[in-house]
Amino acid sequence: MAVLLLFFMLPLSISASGDAFIGVNIGSDISDMPGPTEIVALLKAQSIQHVRLYDADQALLLALANTGIRVTVSVPNDQLLGIGQSNATAANWVTRNVIAHVPATNITAICVGSEVLTTLPNAAPILVSAINFIHSALVAANLDRQIKVSSPHSSSIILDSFPPSQAFFNRTWNPVMVPMFKFLQSTGSCLMLNVYPYYDYQQSNGVIPLDYALFRPLPPNKEAVDSNTLLHYTNVFDAVVDAAYFAMSDLNFTNIPIMVTESGWPSKGDSSEPDATVDNANTYNSNLIRHVLNNTGTPKHPGIAVSTFIYELYNEDLRSGPVSEKNWGLFYANGEPVYTLHLTGAGILFANDTTNQTFCVTKSNADPKMLQAALDWACGPGKVDCSPLLQGQPCYEPDNVVAHSTYAFNAYYQKMDKSPGSCDFKGVATVTTTDPSHGSCIFPGRYDFWSLC
To answer: Lower CB count within 10 Å: N or C terminus of the chain?
Structure first.
């Protein structure tokens, strides 16, 4: 086997560097729901490497096996009370929905409930118990290091959110938030937050400019300035994330990273939602993807990863409420795109944008010893995630230095934004437009990375 020199570092604080990823949420309120194999085929065709499920659908988890796609599963709110009151019930849930599927299915996180404080307040007292019981079951199975546990919250639990430096959490929930933050801190997990600039914009009665909500460029005199910190904000997304950071600081927690578990923009609305349009949805999500993958971070924490899941993969026609509720998807149920994302210059994430699709591969006549040396460098000092090359993972086969180095070289090339000289490796690599993906081993046009948590 090609020897891999892998170096792993656990982040010790929020100041540690990390690279963000973009994922998608997969809802199921669809009258003509695609089958699991159709869903996975779409994910692979679009090079989507991170997904979040609102449950732990057995058929879909089986279909995701051996794809390498990183999966977040969820404890639905209607199961929360039982799990939060019984360690045994939590253990059974983990056995059935996690242990039964790993390692073939790459489950990396568990969401315990969703927006519990704002949608199911009677379950709030047992939320932390549920989180702890789920985590204890992972510890017992020796899975706690590879599978993180948290609970997504609505950004509405943050009060006085602008300027961000004045933000604090609704103190009614301090008996829940403080022990939850202690748990997240002790386990190296993220605060999961749902961030919807669309709703902030809608509810502002004209105070928030549309361009500010959509990440569109603003002249300096139109940027929002925090009068306490003098930090400049060019978009709502960053302001909300920083408000959460400051609110955690208000409770003396300063080293918990944030993951955005939902964000997006609807492509259609009723007469009271004139800004729910295809163009605005495309603009928001395209700019969001670029912003996240550039590892810009936020004004409070520049360069710190804010990995984000787009809401959502499919339009959900069975959802109740206004027209916009049914139209957050990137795709229709038949797999046709609602719009083609504008990702020029941001690398390839979705295959329906084919600009600048190049890969870095091994030269056919390369010396094996030079390949091994370059492979060791890429997986070590080059800081490439070479875990897909380990035995049992999707890119292990074929088990030889040529195949493994091709994967690692391409990963480094994409990581460096395809910059000149990043596909050379002392003359043993070259650029190609031919996708070297094979079987379940997917070579994204832009490499996906782990987040901090």
So the answer is: N
* Location of structure tokens 């996708």: 435
Q: What is the pLDDT of residues 288-345, one digit of tens each?
A: 998 998 888 899 998 888 999 999 999 999 999 999 999 999 999 988 899 888 765 4
Q: State the amino acid at position 86 in one-letter form.
A: S
- With vertex at residue 398, the alpha carbon angle to CA 393 and CA 399, rounded to the nearest 5 degrees, is 80
Closest CA to 170 of 243, 97, 221: 243
Residue 429, SS3? strand
CB atoms near residue 118 (< 10 Å): 16
Domain 355-453: top CATH class: mainly alpha
377 in Cβ contact with 411 (< 8 Å): no
Buried b (16+ CB within 10 A) or exposed e, 347-365: bbbbbebeebebbbbbbee
Chain-centroid distance, C-alpha 129: 25
Condensed to tens digits (0 to 9), the pLDDT of residues 257-267 reads 999 999 999 99
DSSP assignment letter at 302: B
Helix (H, G, I), strand (E, B) or coil at 396: coil
* 41, 316 Cβ separation under 8 angstroms: no
Backbone angles phi, psi at 333, to 5 degrees: -60, -25
Residue count of the chain, please give it.
Answer: 453
In whole angstroms, give the CA distance from residue 141 to residue 139.
Answer: 5
Q: Which of 217-226, 260-269, 361-370, 434-443 comes out lowest in average pLDDT?
A: 434-443
Contact 309, 52 (CB under 8 A): yes
First to last CA, the chain: 30
| Residue 110, CB-side half-sphere exposure with 13 Å CA sphere | 29
Domain ranges of the chain: 22-326, 355-453
CA gap 256, 191 in Å, rounded: 7
Tell me the two tokens of residue 380: 């070590």
Backbone phi and psi for residue 90, each to the nearest 5 degrees, phi listed first: -65, -45
DSSP bridge partners of 193: 153, 260
Residue holding tokens 């919250």?
153
- What fold is seen in the domain 22-326? TIM Barrel (3.20.20)
Neighbours of 369 (CB within 10 A): 9
| Cβ contact 263:237 at 8 Å | yes
Give the bridge partners for 277, in sequence order. none
* Helix boundaries (H) for 53-196: 58-63, 80-84, 87-94, 116-119, 127-140, 174-187
DSSP conformational letter for 388:
G
260/262 Cα distance (integer angstroms): 6
